[in-house]
Amino acid sequence: MKTDLAHYRKEELMRVLTIMQTIRTFEEKAGMMYGLRKIGGFCHLYTGQEAVAAGAISSLDLSKDYVVTAYRDHGHAIACGMDPKKAMAELFGKVTGCSHGKGGSMHLFDLEHHFLGGNGIVGAQIPVAAGVAFSQQYQGTGGVTLCFFGDGAFHQGSVHETFNLAKIWNLPIVFIIENNQWGMGTNWKKVSAVDDFSATAGAYGMKGYSCDGLDVLEVRTTIEKAVAEARLGRPSVVEARTYRYKGHSMSDPQKYRTREEIDEYRKRDAIQAFVAKLTGEKILSEEEWKDMTQRIGAQIEEAVAFAEESPEPALSELYTDIYA
Amino acid sequence: MPELTYREALNRAMDEEMARDEKVFLIGEEVGEYDGAYKVSRGLLAKYGPKRVRDTPISELGFTGLGVGAAIAGLRPVVEWMTHNFALLAVDQVVNNAAKLRQMSGGQISVPIVFRGPNGPAEFLAAQHSQSLGSFWIHVPGLKVVAPATPSDAYGLLKSAIRDDNPVVMLEAELMYAWKGEVSEQEFLVPIGKARIAREGGDVTLITYLKPIRMVEEAADRLAEKGVRAEVIDLRSLRPLDEGTVVNSVRKTGRCVVIDEAWPMASPGVTVAQLVNSRCFDVLDAPVELVSGEDVPMPYNHTLELAAQPSVEKVIAAVGRVLYREDL
Amino acid sequence: MAELLRMIALSPTMSEGRISKWKIDEGTEFSSGDVLCEVETDKASMDYEAPQSASLLKILLQAGETANVGDPIAVIGQKGEDYAPLLKGIGPEAGGAGKAHEPERTAEKAKQEPPSVVAAQPAAARAPQPSPQPSPQPAAEAAAQPSPQPAAEQAPRPAPQAGAKGADSLPRQAPQAPARLPPSSPLARRLALEKGIDIRLVPGSGPGGRVVEHDILEFAEGTKSAAVFSGAAEPAQSAQKELRQESSIIQPSMKRLVIARRLSESFFTAPHYYLKKKIRAEALLALRATANAARPAKLSFNAFLVKIVAEALVRHPEINVYWRGPGALSAPGAAATGAAPETAGGPTPTSASASRPVLEQRHSIDIGLAVALPDGLITPVVRDCNLKSVSEIDAELVQLIEKARAGRLAPEEYEGAGFTISSLGSFGIDEFTAIINPPGSAILAVGTIVKEPVVDDRDAISVAQTLSLTLGCDHRSIDGAVGAVFLADLAGMLENPAMALV
Amino acid sequence: MEAKQYDFVVIGAGPGGYVAAIRAAQLGLATAVVEKNLVGGVCLNIGCIPSKSLIHNARLFAEGKKLLEKCGAKVDLGGFDYAPAWRASRLAADRLSKGVSYLLKKNSVELIQGTATLSGASGIDVATANGSIQLKAKAVLLATGSRPRLIPGFEFDEKKILSSTGMLMSEKLPKRLFILGAGAIGMEFAYVMNAFGVEVTVAELLPRVLPLEDEEASKIVEKEFRARGVVIYTGAKASGAEVADDHVVVHLSDAQGSPLEIETDAALVSVGRTTNIDGLGLEKLGMRIERGYIITGEYHETSCAGIYAVGDITTYLQLAHTASKAGEIVAERVAHLLKGTPDPRDHVLDRLHVPSAVYCEPEVASFGLSEASAKEKAVPYAVARFPYRGNGRAVAVEAPEGQVKIVFDPDTKAILGASIVGESAADTIHEILLASKAELTVEDVAELVYAHPTVSETIMEASKAALGHAIHI
Q1: Dihedrals phi, psi of D98, to nearest 5 degrees
Q2: Closest chain D residue by Cα to residue C130
Q3: Packing angle, helices A286-309 and A10-35, rounded to 10
Q4: How does strand D364-368 pair with strand C66-68?
Q5: pLDDT tens sequence across A278-313
Q6: Which terminus of chain D has a lower count of CB atoms within 10 Å, N or C?
Q7: What pLDDT is attached to residue D325?
Q8: How far is residue D59 CA from its own chain's centroid?
């Protein structure tokens, strides 16, 4: 699917680019901070997949729409509008983090921006997302829920159960499979009966879409279409084929794939490609791009400084936020 | 006061709460057209329509998780599990999502949801359908767990559970649905976390919850004939546990028998026994006795099945041990 | 925006890394994800990937050099940027040397200088009370222990529940002979403490001999004695197995223990001396016979004895005294051989006896009469004997002795004798010495009346009925001569009761 | 500019802050205290201390006048001037504030005049007269206190619509004064002004004066005040004030809802206090704050590790002495963490054993459970009372209005709380407070031999009353 740039106003294109670059810069910094042991535990970076979150989430109206995702959640959180300071502070485990340092990398939440997490169990967020869509339908809000999950999660039973529920009740939901091709260290082709996940949608009476997850505009137009359908009570399944540059998590030595494969994908980098397209069409100047990267670089630096300087949660916080 | 069955009491509670709050809805297998596998939701579909009384496919994981999602997005679902045995398919959604989302989000998100259904052995149902699984739920911080033993408590606790802003798991029992008891016509709530002293006595404290209550009361009657005045505590809530009522009673009697249908390891019963040991040590005249379900999968044969469960005789024998009376 | 590139942890356990090779040269541009250098970690050789796109401006750590995680290894940025300020404070040796000057960025620094109070404390020290402490021992380590015997079984159990008294009396210093508490329920231990009962003396009726509540209650009522139950607790077959026993242990009763303690205390603190006098008893016997002639119930010999001793004491108040030492265990008026007058906290020294001994002068004539019972001795006391007639004294004695035999004497009926009479006449004992019964200073031991030849004033030998008196005195309060005068006077009155009237 | 490093930085030099700072310095911590206003805080400068001075003089004035009149003297108040009494109050405040500055100096606490903002867990920016400076601290204490609460319709101009600050700072007496809010502050000013001859009207929203105190104590105080000519409206809602050139008209509706207009020369608004937490940068730190109060846990630590809070900004009673005690605990805790000095584990600020006092005439003082709170919490309790009428000393000094009320456990006879209204209440409360803290029972207190005649005997008598055998009633 080729998309006409002219379809979008410059501000919108710049907004999408900003989201992508913010995610990229944030993730690169998060990786550094992990290496410096400022961040611990499981930390799944989104580097390489920015086009999916940015393209998909930028198409939403977050005054009524919701986003639910799994543990590789920094990108979606930022795309929804979470302040990078709050996100970085959460990674640092500080009390200023979006979850007061209780969630960490895998459990970012931002209720204000309709971002409902951040789920660490593969596939567990899928029925929850359907529930959010159920609530939207029940309350007649006109909202849609985007449910992100990966090629690994696709094989969970929750997918079948939720696809079925979504269709029988015509929930306003779009299931987005971010196929980054590696379920931890397992190549998706090895464990998948189909070579296009969107093909399964038909079995549930839903429409399936597939798009190039490295082309942000293609993602954007595809999701726009799917979201419009979902608003009319027609749930759908979208596969966005993408690639992650880093290991599954920060402790992954990545022996299962070659550097050549990674380099191959880096050449097709979604941000670079988008920038090239924008500059080629004279929508973005070199100068503007430089300004943007600098501005975002400074913003993320600031987020790190904020996280660094923020207080730890006091011990009394151990017992808070558990029961309402 | 009018008598209601346990089933009718639950039905009345849901009916009133659905009438009171548009956001309350019932979801589960056979809750609508079939009036509930155990007829607990009888008439609700007719009254509230399919939007609010939602029949699901046989997808415990799916509809339980969907309930959680609906709860975090502003609704108040009552999720009926046909039995707690089947809820094991949905444990992930209860434990990893319902109980955790509030804490993981630093308090941003609330999960006002009720999970309810029959729990524990009935008759002739064999290993997979006769399990008392309160242990699974009470283990998890973030959940509340209630287990009413009378129609009145079933009514009052279910209403409290529906109004609670936290996930509440409610244990019921198939054989209790037909139990009758007085339920005030006036609307009332039973607070979560408060035990009931079912009978007062000074010689020994018998602590139980859910279905064994009647058996324990019968044991108490028989003990009374032999001059032993047993205090019977119906816990009603397993999490949070009403520690005060338990501790005050055992401090009075110095002897304690806990009766629990669940298997003995890591069960509500041993949790209570541990509480008594730690808080009442100085007044105990005998180790706390636990009368639990036998540590075996439930057999189908009726004689074996009964032998696998607590009984009046087992309770009396345990009381004999804590009283050092061989004549009991 | 030039910045320092730092050594990062390329494996979870890496704390330092050695650069084995730089893959690009200074001045080269690179993209995010490009390999900048190879780093040897504790585990393997790893690629150091560029965290972002930039140029390598300066290498700070050369191949072959090692740096801690967090130390700068290079400067990256845009070509031509002035990065000199970044290097300020980094020593000529580059790399690792920079770390000490870099404010709180490095892991090392963070360790050394906590930025806040929190980091200064080990987590354990700040743990809130309500949270249960996790086991400090890793599970694997615990599992590796070959002997998983519970510690409780190995060590003698300290028994705080037994109270200060019980715990003190346990030979904690002597592990070779641990005096173990019998198995007992916490409630029983608490009750025993409250009632001042040594739980080791209480036979247990619970499983494995556990002492339980009703054992203590029965013991306290006196309806359960050690002897009965020590027999019952031992199975009969053990007696058959071992027909001959060197000795066996009998748990003494509470009363026995009290007698033992109090008499030892008296005997080992009060310096005793004894005065003996043999008297003729005919006149006294005749008096008794005369008095009894018209009475349906006979007055006892002891009643006369008590009355005359009382008269002697009226004349010799110096005998009716008590030497109260500092910290003396007996409260005023406490009995010597009463059954368990102690309370849980142990006897309280009175204020008078707190620092130095005092001599207590008694103003009432309260005489105790030792009575032997199967399980010990008890001394019922007749108060104000000088104000009572012989028949009153007799009536009182009958009542007291009856109560004593039934075990129903109240403390006020056996405590506080100022003088004690002990008679073994009924056992045919000629004479004996007795141990002073506090709070008195003297005790009169009375033997049996025997017929024996005596030489009278006229040197004629005749048969007389004689009685041996032995007066035991506390030398601290009664000197020998004082005691002697008293005994002589008393003897005179007993030999000639009329003397008691004048 | 290089940030200056301290162990402990205290923000606010009121009774919470300066005590904490001095204690911390005593324990060897490098300590600084940042104050934007006057050292000593509200208490010393515009609170307890100057108001006590005024109360003292008001009492002398009123009683002296009363005595002279009683003895037949013709009292001519011509030439009466309030200013000297007012100056005495300022002198007292000034003296004590200087005293605190001296103590800070003596203990090597650095005093930094300026406005502080937290820039992170350990950084503090201070805006001073000479520009901004940065401080670094291993631990921070927030002790910024409170200010009079503003309510719409009664915006302070400190000329006609006064806060307690304005009231304390005015050198002249109004002829008529309207007081909105009959809490401790309102009633103390009502007393002072009435004693100096001002026509005072008090309005309170709740159904009684001193609503935080025991109901019976309220009644006694209200009766006394009315007897002295103070006009009191309880259950009254104030909707606003019209300020004219030479007077103010206050609009009220009384307990029955009927509208009332009160013309007065000045209105004092004393309806509680607002916490000073804005501008400290707390939201950015993710600190747990509920309804304007900072939530603190063990050792008064906020939800941010290493940052503590004491005094009016927390959920404890807004009293100088709670702040001071909490400040001490924080200092000791921080010194324990940094220097290994003993942990103040046993020095907890026990909410039930904090006395509160109102220094009007008659004085009111209380602690612990009131009868109402015991009832509400369903705690088993009994109440014993003893009236001042039965006390020789109180009668002799012509102060027979008052009573001691003890709330105790009917089984154990433990003292759960007490309320005293009458002569010397704020002083005598401490003996029963000490008894309660030391877990003595009413039996113990009843047994104690008291000097006769003293007002304290009322406590012994009330304790005897608790046991059913008071002598003098």
Answers
A1: -65, -40
A2: D298
A3: 40
A4: unpaired
A5: 999 999 999 999 999 999 999 999 999 999 999 999
A6: N
A7: 95
A8: 19
Cis bond leading into B32, ω under 30°? Answer: no
Q: Do C187 and B284 touch (CB under 8 A)?
A: yes
Instruction: Enter the ipTM.
Output: 0.64
For domain C3-101, give its CATH number from 2.40.50.100, 3.40.50.1100, 1.10.10.10, 3.20.20.150: 2.40.50.100
Query: Residue B286 is nearest to which of C161, C190, C212, comparing CB atoms?
Result: C212
DSSP code at position C164: H
What pLDDT, on the 0 to 100 scale, is given for residue C349? 38
Task: State whether residue D72 is helix, strand or coil.
Answer: coil
* Plot region of D67 (φ>0 → left; ψ -120 to 50 → alpha; else → beta): alpha
Average confidence (pLDDT) over D227-236: 95
Burial class (CB in 10 A: 0-12, 13-18, 19+), C119: middle
pLDDT of the residue at D167: 94
**Active-site amino acid positions of D:** 452
Bridge-based pairing of strands B53-55 and A186-187 is unpaired
C-alpha C9/C-alpha A91 separation (Å) is: 17
Q: Which amino acid is at C122?
A: P
The chain C residue lying nearest A291, using CA atoms, is: C1
Q: How far is CA C35 from the centre of its chain?
A: 74
What's the full length of chain B, in residues? 328
pLDDT at C254: 67
What is the C-alpha end-to-end distance of chain D, expressed in Å?
73
Question: Between chains, do C186 and B284 touch, taking CB under 8 Å as contact?
Answer: yes
Catalytic annotation, pick one of B17, B60, B174, B261: B60
Least confident residue range of A38-52, A269-283, A288-302, C425-439? C425-439
- Cβ–Cβ gap C212/B281 under 8 Å: no
Q: What residues of C are annotated to the active site? A: 475
Nearest to D304 among A306, A308, A314 (CB): A314
CB contact under 8 A, A315 and C127: yes
User: D-chain residues within 8 Å CB-CB of C128?
Assistant: 298
Chain B residues in contact with C213 by the CB 8 A cut-off are: 254, 285
% of chain A with per-residue pLDDT over 70: 99
Domain boundaries, chain B: 3-182, 196-323
The CB-based long-range contact list for D154-158 (8 Å cut-off, 24+ gap) reads D154/D180, D154/D238, D154/D240, D154/D241, D154/D267, D154/D269, D156/D269, D157/D243
- Superfamily the domain C255-501 falls into: Chloramphenicol acetyltransferase-like domain (3.30.559.10)
Into which CATH architecture does domain B3-182 fall?
Answer: 3-Layer(aba) Sandwich (3.40)
- The dihedral built from the CA positions of residue D345, D346, D347 and D353, taken in this order, carries a sign that is positive
pTM equals 0.71
**Could you tell me what percent of chain C has a pLDDT over 90?**
24
B84 given a catalytic annotation: no
Q: Write the pLDDT tens digit of every residue in C109-154.
A: 444 444 445 444 444 444 444 444 444 444 444 444 444 344 434 4
Domains B3-182 and B196-323 share a fold: yes
Nearest-by-CA chain B residue for C208: B324
- How large is the C-alpha radius of gyration of chain A? 19
Contact at CB, C117 and D338, closer than 8 angstroms: yes
Tell me which DSSP letter residue C424 carries: -
CB atoms C117 and D298 under 8 Å: no
**B130-158 confidence digits (pLDDT tens):** 999 999 999 999 999 999 999 999 999 99
Q: How far is A143 from chain C (nearest CA, A)?
A: 37
**Mean pLDDT, residues A266-283:** 94
The one catalytic residue in B129, B139, B243, B294 is: B129
Q: Is D120 exposed, middle or buried (0-12, 13-18, 19+ CB in 10 A)?
A: buried
pLDDT bracket for residue B41 (50, 70, 90): very high
Do A138 and B75 lie within an 8 Å CB cutoff?
Answer: yes
Q: Which of residues 206-245 of A touch D (CB under 8 A)?
A: none
